[in-house]
Amino acid sequence: MSNSTERDRWDARYTGRQQNQTLRLIWREAYGEDYPEEAEPNSFVTLSELRRIVRELRVGPGQTFADLGCGDGGLGLWVAREAGAGMIGIDFSPVAVDRAAQRAVALGLADRARFQVGDVQTTGLPDASMDGAMSVDVLLFVPDKAAGMREVARILRPGARFIFTSWDYDLPKLNGVEAPQVPDHWPLLRDAGLIVEAYEEPPDWRPRQRAVYDGILAAQSILVKEAGDVNVRGLIDQALKRPAELPYGRRVLAIVRKT
Q: How far apart, in whole angstroms, are the C-alpha atoms of residue 137 and residue 68?
């Protein structure tokens, strides 16, 4: 799949998500009190995981972190507000970046948050310029994960932390995902010169993810009516195919430090 086709797919997904209130209801029902409603995630992150990211990043006023694969900005802005830090969001989708900038203005955070088009492998950020970095459920889609880890190491200052969530998969390819998968990100982190401080599988992630997919399939006609088939087709296809792949992977939350 070409970069332009992949970008078009994500642009459509972010366009559809803004128009689709039913998606929020599905996630809220699946996650209950652990759903980070205010951040409006386009991911499987929980409120508990977001709070952990804030604690483990160890950034504050006068410091800046990067949100790699920031989407429409909800998660990174939530972390920036809670930590009192500045942020730079990087995303592949121009639609997402535009929405993220609008969200920053609406939240009163435009003075310490900016967003730009890029990707995890080539952020465009200067060497050793970031006091921390986060990435939520994005590495799954990065074509060259080793290059992504090297890029993270390049942009971090010595001692800065990188917190991410993603999935380890024994399957080399997933339905609907062009990027190859890895069974363990740990060696890639080590080879990039990053020190792994924690590498954990969050509790109950499989039943929650299955519940989201079940909800999407049960409400697919409503989702299409709200946002249009082209904008939700990728999500519906994922809900149809991804459950069969869940036994071959594990969701991980990693806390990593640059030496």
A: 10
R_g of the chain computed on alpha carbons: 17
Burial 7-24 (b: 16+ CB within 10 A, else e): bebbbbbbbbbeebebbe
The Cα 49–Cα 209 span in angstroms is 15
Q: Which two tokens stand for residue 85?
A: 């830090």
Top-level class of domain 3-19+38-203+248-258: alpha beta
Q: Two tokens at 119?
A: 């990707």
CB distance 88 to 156 below 8 Å: no
| Closest alpha carbon to 120 in 48, 202, 192 | 192
Contact criterion met (CB below 8 Å) for 249 and 167? yes
Say what percent of the chain tops pLDDT 70. 92
pLDDT digits (tens, 9 = 90+) for 178-199: 899 999 999 999 999 999 999 9
The band of 2, judged by pLDDT with boundaries at 50, 70 and 90, is very low
**Distance between CA atoms of residues 49 and 26, nearest Å:** 19
